[in-house]
Every structure is written in structure tokens, then in C-alpha cells.
Design goal:
The complex is a heterodimer of chains A (534) and B (294). Chain A is of the alpha/beta class and 534 residues long. In chain A, 50% of the residues lie in helices and 10% in strands. Chain B is elongated, with a radius of gyration of 26 Å. With 294 residues, chain B is an all-alpha fold.
Chain lengths: 534, 294
């Protein structure tokens, strides 16, 4: 026997060894063969910066303690591959139960209608996890600080809510408090742009005197885009209201684009030239070459003490506060004044310098076999307790009403104490936005000027805007056609159960939503037919 | 039961966590479920309700599989369901749509609700589905449907679609006032309140687009609001729009009523700041008017 064992070929020995190693690996690294918990819910998102994963982990820990039968797994998917991952897993049927998604994500706009389940009915009921809190008995929808405003506006199916949100965010001017105190003797930032520009000059002089490279603003293409969106929308409020023919008290990108084709505004208008002049002054305080840099480069510049401020979204606030080797403060944007020679005469008044709409949205996967458990977890995640736990561990402000915001985070919020009139003139549509940023060097380059920039924009903008509106009309049609089929199907379900009010309401909503979208598509098509230049 | 198996495999949860040591890969499971579904003896014949349920949930390919198992392939209800599923079965081509149209024409021959729905879907092919829309043809079919089965829900819905075409897309009538007039005439033929509301709303929006007098525009917007139930963001926009257009038209009491309602119903909106400014302006107007009175 022993001899026979000894003469076994080496290959068989290796195979046996390999088998033992594999079994050991599965037993020590895999989940138990008989799972300890009956249900596993998975949720995936791309917020892998400092903070949010810790916050969600803390909520999961508490939830699992309350529900010993349920296990919740958090999947972190890098933003760079998120869209591909989303498409592949949903098509392959391996997507998690709860999924972060944003309506702005390019090339995956069809996903919500195809793969996600509306959560409207649940949102109309009180969140049971809010018992004993100030939100007890309040419908879940009303417990969100903005009542899911963005989600209502951007719903793939008007009248339906498809997601709930986790946090509130804005944009802020983050500053190195230690350096600010060294330079100015205080930890304050001026409220007006003229005063801010003076501070910028002091910062540069401070750096020069010490022989070090120090810029007032950390610069990168993304940060420039954030600045431009807010400042252009704010400084051009008066113009926007003057063009608001529909009486909506605001204009969206499509309306602004149509107004451009109607020749109701051009880039060469004096107020727009003035606003661009202010932006050029601002960007002169960034390190030359910033348009070639990304968001992370700007963060590094700030962290290395090479820039006093960085303008970014509050999604960066936890990373900045936890990683910077100095104390970081968040400040409101300085506003232009009426005596400003460039923009003063055209100002409407104080404008909102950020938005507090809630985000970090989780959608329910229609194919999830655990709808009840997944929605229950969502309820806990966005309950008073869940919101407080998430905020304490993530450093992100909770989307839930009445959850106390710690004093150190309060400055991340933007009070609604000014006008909000439009989206940004710099990011109207895909093509017009691309054109704006492609020609931007004509404004801020070494031989740049407002004149050069606006001339180049006005020369190419009609074609870009026409392309954008054509794309909008095409996209509307693409989403409208499948709705015919759903309307036909729901119609049949109504016939099968004529007394069911829920099915009737669903049909009415679908039809009404399609009528609205179809009206818009035909409206845009009509505008293009009558306005677009060949 | 079979579908549950398919879902379990598709989720592949066991594979991710090493809990399943011996199993088939998800694609195999899905294929197996598919073939099991096709076996005539494996399950009872599906009802049409379940087929329509699949179509409603964007699972047209599955609905077509179920339809293949029906005993009576010539049933008009089944033919209608097949045509509807074909409109959404990817990849959708004009050739496939022509085949669906043939089925719809066959069902449309009667005078019942099925016939009305089939005709309606046929109009939609020309309005929305073919690569090259044919709006005049769609309008012609919609008019014929409304004349033949005026009380059918599909004819009623079709009148709203006809209105949209008249407002923006058909070559005739060409002038804005005439477009609005022929579309307003449709309102009297629509008996379903929710569809009346939708057309009123579209008439109001088109009136602004065609630069019509504000009083007429407001009549339609107010009518839409009175009926109620406007879906989604449009409900918020409608209140803001009535308030602001009333303000511009000098209908101050109505403007105030709607501005105040906006603040009550949408307190978190970014537009609230502007609304408050407008209310102050109304106060100033009222004070000025009072001061000017002898």
C-alpha cells in the first residue's frame, strides 16, 4: 500500500494538494455554506471618497442588529467604471437590490424605466422607523429636506418617484484656515467680489514675499466649471427673467437654447460680456494651465499649501477636512456688487450660491427578489436615526428633516436667500457646453479677451444649439415610443379589473406623462423647423 | 416557479459568496428556464392578463414566448397583445412594425374596445414608431377613430394626440390662431376629465409659445388646474405659471392667490424667493392704487 502511494505520479500529488488548498480557501474565505441570515441585500454606489462608506457601514451595523435575519452588503464601485458596470450587471441580471444612479449619467438614461421600480406608494406612507421622533406619522416623502424635488423634476415617469436620497450638498469655497489667519489675521472671507479680489492680491504678495508658490485659488477644469455655472446663472438673473416668456419664474437649458435661436440673447450682449469679464478676473487667480488639470490636481494643490482656497462641491468636504494637515473652513461665495463696472448695472440682486437639493440617490432594482426587505432597509437608511448615524460617520449632511446638523458642517449649506433663475449658460446642452469649454482659452489665455471669446461663441453656437435641440427631440421620441406599449398594456389591465383604482390611476399618470412629453417633443420639433438656421 | 429559478440564477448571489459549491453558471440556468418555459406540458397555458402584465413591465420578449403557448392563436385579444409586444421587442425595425400593423388592422375590424385600441396603436405607428413619422396619416386615422367609436377611451386619448399634432406638427392650418382654434374645438368632444385637463394644459403652453393674449392662455391653464391631478413637475410649474402670467396681465388678486398657494405647496423650491419678491410687488401695487384713489 505504502509503496503504491509512493509511486503515484507527481502530477496526482500536485492535484491533490491543489484540491486541499482550494477547499481550505473556500472554507476560510467564502461565506458559510449555510448562510447565517436568511436574506442578503446588496447596495452599490460610487461615493468611494472619504466618509460615505463609513456612514453607510454604521447604518448597516445598526440595521443588522435590529434585523438578525437580514444581511446588508455595501458594494463600492469606482465612478470611472460605474456606467459600464451598471449596464452589464443590470443586463446580466446580477445587479444588486439597491443601486445609486444619477439622471445626468450619459448613455444610461434608459435604465430607470427599464430596470428600476417606482417607490411612490411607499413614499406616501409614514416611515415606521421614525416612531418616537419629530417625524413620526409624517409621510416618508415629506421627511426629506427638499421633498425629493430633483427626483420629481427628473422623474423618468412624471408623477412617479423612483428613488430616495441620502444627503444634502452644495458648493462652497473651502479655505485653509491656518494660512488665512497668517495672511489676514482672521478666519473670514469677504462677502463681496471687489473685497475678495483685494484678498487675492494680498495672498499673492504674501507668497512672493516668502519666495513660495502660492495662488489664491486652486485651479482645475472641474472647479472652473463649478464656478462658471453658479456665477453666470447668478449674474445673469435679470436677463433670464426678462426672457422668461412662459412665466415659469425660471428657465431651463432647453428654454435658454430656444431663446438663443430666436435671437433673444447672444454671447455678445453687454451683460454677458460683463459677467464673462468678472469670471476672467476670478480665474486670473488660478495657476496658469489649470484648464488642463482635473479635480484631484486641484485638491492636491490645496493640500500642499499651494493655494489658499478651493471651490468645490461639499462632496469633497469630508476628504478635505479629514486629509488636510490644517483646519479647513467652508465659506459662501463672494457676490458682485452694484457698483462693479463690468456687471453692476445688470445685476438683479443677491443670488443663491449653491443649492441644497438632496442627492446620493438609491433606486430599487425591479429584478430584486427582496423588494420588501430592500425598501425596509431604505426606510431605515433615511430615517431620523439612520440619517443621524450616517451624518455622524460620513461627515455628509443628511437629507432628512430635523436631523441636527453639527456646527462644523452647518457652513456647508446654502441658505435660499437669493434668486434662482436658471441652469447655467455655460452648460446648456452637450454640444453647446463642449463649444463653450473648447473656446474658453480665448477668454483666459495669454492673449485672451471677452471679445475673442464671445465672437467665437456666437459664430458657432447656432449650430451647436441646433444639434442639442435635435438630440433632445430625438431622445424624447425614443422614450415616448415604449410608453405606447405600456399604456396599451395598462389599458388592458384596467379592462380586466375596472374597479381597481390603483390601476386606473397608473393609466392616467402614464397617459398624462406621455401627453406632456409628447407636447414637449413636438414643441421642440416645431421650434427647430421655424428657427434653426441651415 | 420557473421564473423564480431564473431570477435566482440571474442574481448569482450564491456564486459571489462561495455558498454554492456545485451549480451551473447563470447563462446556463437562464437558458434552461427558457426551454422549460417553452415546454407545453411544463406549465398551464398562460392567461392574457399575465401576458399584458409582462408587456406592462417591459418584458415584451417574455410576453411573446407566452403568446406562442396559447392554444387559440387567432383570438383577437391575443393578436392585439402580440402586436403590442412586437412594438417593443428589440431590435425594433420598420419591417417588424409593418408586421405588427397587419395584426392591428385585422383586430381593428370590429366595433368593440379591442378594435378601438388596435386602431389607436396603428395611429401611433405613424406618429411615433416608424423611423420616418407620417403625421398627416396619423391625423387621418385619429379622426376616423374618433368618428367611428367616439366614446371609446382610445378615441378620447386619440383626440388629445390629434390636438398635439394640430398645435405643432400638421401643415394645416398654418396660422397660430387657427391652430389653437381647431384644437380648442376638440375639447367639446372629449368627455374624460383627465384627458380634457391634458389638452387644456397643452393649449395653454402652446398659447404662450404662439404669443397669444395672456387672458386666453390663462383660461386654459386655470381649467387644467380646476380639473386637478396634473402629473409630476408640471403641477408645480402650472401654479407658478398661472401666478406669474396673472401678475403680468394685471390680474392681481388671482396672481396673489396662486403665489401664496405656491409658497404653501412648494415651500422648499428655489423659486420661493422670487415669489416672495413678487408678493411684495403686489403689496406695493395695491398701496399705490390705494394712494391714487381720490
Amino acid at each position: 500500500m505504502n509503496r503504491r502511494v509512493r509511486v503515484l505520479p507527481l502530477g496526482l500529488w500536485l492535484l491533490g494538494l491543489g484540491y486541499v488548498v482550494c477547499v481550505a480557501w473556500v472554507l476560510t474565505h467564502g461565506a458559510p455554506v449555510l448562510p447565517g441570515r436568511k436574506v442578503t441585500i446588496r447596495l452599490a454606489h460610487w461615493q468611494i471618497e472619504k466618509g460615505p462608506p463609513d456612514g453607510i457601514d454604521a447604518v448597516i451595523k445598526r440595521y443588522e442588529a435590529l434585523h438578525p435575519d437580514v444581511r446588508v452588503e455595501q458594494m463600492l464601485v469606482p465612478g470611472a467604471v460605474y456606467r459600464q458596470w451598471l449596464r452589464t450587471t443590470l443586463a446580466g441580471g446580477t445587479a444588486p437590490d439597491l443601486i445609486e444612479y444619477g439622471i445626468w449619467l450619459e448613455n444610461v438614461r434608459d435604465v430607470p424605466l427599464r430596470y428600476f421600480e417606482p417607490v411612490t406608494d411607499w413614499l406616501m406612507e409614514p416611515n415606521p422607523y421614525n416612531r418616537g421622533t419629530p417625524l413620526q406619522g409624517v409621510p416618508w416623502l415629506k421627511t426629506f429636506e427638499d421633498e425629493l424635488l430633483e427626483q420629481r423634476v427628473n422623474s423618468p415617469e412624471p408623477g412617479q418617484y423612483y428613488c430616495v436620497t441620502m444627503s444634502r450638498g452644495s458648493q462652497r469655497l473651502f479655505g485653509n484656515l491656518k494660512l488665512l489667519r497668517e495672511i489676514t489675521g482672521a478666519e473670514r472671507v469677504p462677502a463681496t467680489l471687489p473685497e475678495f479680489f483685494k484678498l487675492c492680491e494680498r495672498v499673492r504678495a504674501y507668497g512672493r514675499n516668502r519666495g513660495r508658490e502660492l495662488m489664491p485659488l486652486a485651479g482645475a477644469r472641474d472647479n472652473t466649471m463649478f464656478f462658471s455655472e453658479i456665477y453666470l446663472a447668478g449674474m445673469l438673473t435679470k436677463l433670464t427673467f426678462a426672457m422668461d416668456r412662459d412665466g415659469m419664474l425660471a428657465m431651463d437649458s432647453r428654454q435658454l437654447e430656444a431663446a438663443y435661436l430666436e435671437n433673444r440673447w447672444q454671447w455678445s450682449r453687454p451683460e454677458i460680456r460683463g459677467a464673462l469679464g468678472v469670471l476672467a478676473q476670478l480665474y486670473a487667480h488660478m495657476k496658469p494651465g489649470y484648464l488642463q488639470l482635473g479635480r484631484d490636481d486641484a485638491v492636491q494643490q490645496f493640500m500642499r499649501d499651494e493655494a489658499l482656497f478651493i471651490f468645490t462641491g461639499t462632496f469633497d468636504s469630508t476628504s478635505l477636512r479629514r486629509l488636510a494637515p490644517f483646519p479647513v473652513g467652508a465659506f459662501r461665495l463672494p457676490q458682485p456688487t452694484r457698483d462693479d463696472p463690468l456687471i453692476g448695472p445688470y445685476l438683479m440682486g443677491h443670488f443663491v450660491d449653491g443649492d441644497n437639493s438632496t442627492g446620493f440617490e438609491f433606486y430599487l432594482n425591479r429584478a430584486s427578489p427582496h423588494h420588501t426587505e430592500a425598501v425596509d432597509f431604505l426606510r431605515f437608511l433615511t430615517s431620523y436615526e439612520g440619517g443621524r448615524t450616517f451624518m455622524a460617520h460620513s461627515g455628509w449632511i443628511s437629507s432628512i428633516r430635523h436631523v441636527p446638523v453639527p456646527p462644523e458642517l452647518a457652513s456647508d449649506l446654502s441658505p435660499v436667500d437669493g434668486y434662482v433663475a436658471s441652469g447655467s449658460y455655460s452648460t446648456l446642452g452637450t454640444e453647446s457646453s463642449r463649444l463653450f469649454w473648447r473656446e474658453f482659452y480665448r477668454l483666459t489665455g495669454p492673449r485672451g479677451s471677452v471679445e475673442n471669446f464671445t465672437t467665437a461663441l456666437d459664430a458657432a453656437m447656432p449650430a451647436a444649439i441646433t444639434a442639442d435641440l435635435r438630440a433632445e427631440e430625438r431622445n424624447q421620441r425614443l422614450t415616448l415610443a415604449p410608453r405606447d406599449v405600456r399604456i396599451a398594456a395598462i389599458g388592458e389591465l384596467v379592462r380586466a379589473a375596472p374597479q381597481d383604482p390603483a390601476v386606473r390611476l397608473r393609466r392616467e399618470r402614464l397617459e398624462s406623462a406621455q401627453n406632456q412629453s409628447e407636447g414637449l417633443a413636438l414643441h421642440v420639433e416645431c421650434q427647430l423647423r421655424t428657427l434653426a438656421k441651415p | 416557479m420557473i421564473l423564480a429559478t431564473g431570477n435566482t440564477c440571474r442574481r448569482g448571489a450564491g456564486f459571489h459568496h462561495g455558498a454554492v459549491l456545485f451549480s451551473f453558471p447563470p447563462p446556463f440556468c437562464r437558458t434552461a428556464a427558457w426551454w422549460l418555459l417553452l415546454l407545453p406540458a411544463a406549465a398551464a397555458e398562460p392567461g392574457l392578463t399575465s401576458v399584458w402584465q409582462d408587456i406592462a413591465e417591459s418584458r415584451s420578449h417574455l410576453a411573446l414566448v407566452q403568446l406562442d403557448r396559447l392554444a387559440d392563436q387567432n383570438d383577437r385579444g391575443a393578436q392585439l397583445a402580440r402586436a403590442a409586444a412586437m412594438l417593443d421587442d428589440q431590435p425594433v425595425t420598420d419591417t417588424g412594425l409593418r408586421e405588427a400593423e397587419a395584426l392591428l388592422v385585422a383586430v381593428a375590424g370590429g366595433t368593440d374596445e379591442l378594435a378601438a385600441q388596435a386602431t389607436y396603436l396603428q395611429t401611433r405607428l405613424y406618429q411615433m414608431h416608424f423611423a420616418q413619422p407620417d403625421f398627416p396619416k396619423a391625423a387621418e386615422l385619429l379622426r376616423a377613430l374618433a368618428a367611428r367609436l367616439p366614446q371609446s377611451h382610445w378615441a378620447q386619448l386619440g383626440l388629445v394626440k390629434l390636438g398635439l399634432l394640430q398645435l405643432y406638427a400638421l401643415p394645416e392650418p398654418s396660422g397660430p390662431a387657427a391652430r389653437l382654434a381647431v384644437t380648442e374645438a376638440l375639447l367639446a368632444r372629449i368627455t374624460e376629465k383627465s384627458l380634457q385637463r391634458d389638452l387644456h394644459l397643452q393649449l395653454g403652453l402652446a398659447g404662450v409659445f404662439w404669443k397669444q393674449p395672456l387672458a386666453g392662455v390663462l383660461e386654459h391653464l386655470l381649467a387644467a388646474d380646476r380639473i386637478g391631478g396634473v402629473a409630476g413637475q408640471a403641477s408645480e410649474d402650472l401654479i407658478a405659471q398661472i401666478a406669474e402670467l396673472s401678475f403680468r396681465d394685471g390680474q392681481d388678486a388671482q396672481a396673489r392667490q396662486y403665489y401664496e398657494r405656491y409658497l404653501r405647496e412648494y415651500p422648499t423650491s428655489g423659486r420661493c424667493f422670487t415669489v416672495r419678491v413678487r408678493l411684495q410687488m403686489l403689496d406695493e401695487r395695491a398701496a399705490a392704487a390705494k394712494g391714487a384713489r381720490p
